[in-house]
Fold this sequence. Notes:
This protein is an all-beta fold. It has strands at 2-10, 15-20, 26-30, 43-51, 54-62. It has a single domain (2-62), classed as CATH 2.40.50.140. A hairpin with a 4-residue loop joins strand 1 (2-10) and strand 2 (15-20).
Amino acid sequence: MKTGIVKSFNELSKYGFIKVDETGEEIFVHESGLTCLIRKGDKVMFMITDGKKGPNATNVKRIE
């Protein structure tokens, strides 16, 4: 599992980006990959999977 910070998440469009702590890379996240609601600035734990257009964050969970 990776950790990161939610850089952006648009509730209307249902997608956003997470900045990975280890690499600084930005990973796409869609609402379908969430286990709970997330907001900009949240610390999260997630897995990276291959999507149609590149890497996606899945199984995204907020952490304290």
